[in-house]
Amino acid sequence: MNKNEFLNKLKAALAVLPEEDIQKTVDYYSEIIDDAVEEGESEQDITERRGDVNERADKIRKETPVQKLKRKYGLTAAILITAGSPIWIAIAAALLAIAAALYISVWAVIASLFAVFAAAALGGAAMLVVSVPLLFVRPLDAMLSFGTALVCAGLSVFMFYLSVWIAELVVRFTCWIFSKIRRRKK
Predict the structure, then answer these.
(1) Distance (Å, rounded) from C-alpha 103 to C-alpha 180?
(2) pTM given for the model
(3) For residue 168, what pLDDT is reported?
(4) Cα-based distances in Å from 116 to 13, 27, 153, 154, 166
(5) Does the chain have fewer CB atoms within 10 Å around its N or its C terminus?
(6) Handedness of CA 90, 95, 96, 102 (dihedral sign)
(7) What residues does each domain of the chain span?
(8) Rounded mean pLDDT, 78-89
(9) Alpha-carbon distance 147 to 134, whole Å?
(10) Alpha-carbon distance 152 to 125, whole Å?
(11) What's the chain's average pLDDT?
């Protein structure tokens, strides 16, 4: 990571400090990096030697007096959050229920696609079985049955691959959503 990336990450990790303290810390590390670059070291080597930005920011925050740390929510915000909780909890529950219903609906469609695959495969097999005895009694009907069996077999192969592809997409999307949620919590 170069100097700017390091300093931007450090600045973001120290967001709970007063702006003056953040700027002093960023200026301090900027000067250290500049001095090392003048001595012939690369920015990447210097920033790697400094260690993880979040660990360094944790250390700086722990050394900062509690009075300097910014409060995220004031008393007014706490009162509004508490008073509005019946409304926002109901809205959040409704949104969660809608998301769950949509997710279940998508899986129901996928299950339906697999059912169409099974029906086409079974229908094709049944038409093939029916076409054999018909061959001796009604040859044209037997050919029609055999052709229908081939169409059903082709449709079943298509539906199988389509169903698997859509199921894979939904699983990947689900994993992507959970990874985004997991990153947001960190």
Answers:
(1) 17
(2) 0.50
(3) 95
(4) 53, 65, 12, 12, 14
(5) C
(6) positive
(7) 3-68, 85-185
(8) 80
(9) 13
(10) 8
(11) 85
Residue entry with tokens 């004031």 = 74
What value does the mean pLDDT take over residues 124-151?
Answer: 90
CB 3 within 8 A of CB 49: no
Structure tokens at 130: 């029916």
Q: How much is the pLDDT for 160? A: 94
> Which tokens in the block code for residue 57?
């920011």
Q: How far is CA 9 from the centre of its chain?
A: 23
Q: Which two tokens stand for residue 59?
A: 């250390």
Give the C-alpha separation, 181 to 99, whole Å: 15
Average pLDDT on 33-56 reads 81
pLDDT confidence bin for 65, thresholds 50/70/90: low
pLDDT at 171: 93
Residues 21 and 64: beta-carbon distance below 8 Å: yes
DSSP 106-166: HHHHHHHHHHHHHHHHHHHHHHHHHHHHHHHH-HHHHHHHHHHHHHHHHHHHHHHHHHHHH
CB-count exposure of residue 175 (10 Å: 0-12, 13-18, 19+): exposed
Record the tokens describing residue 157, joined without a space. 């192969």
Q: Which two three-digit tokens encode residue 10?
A: 């450090």
Cβ–Cβ < 8 Å for 68, 18:
yes
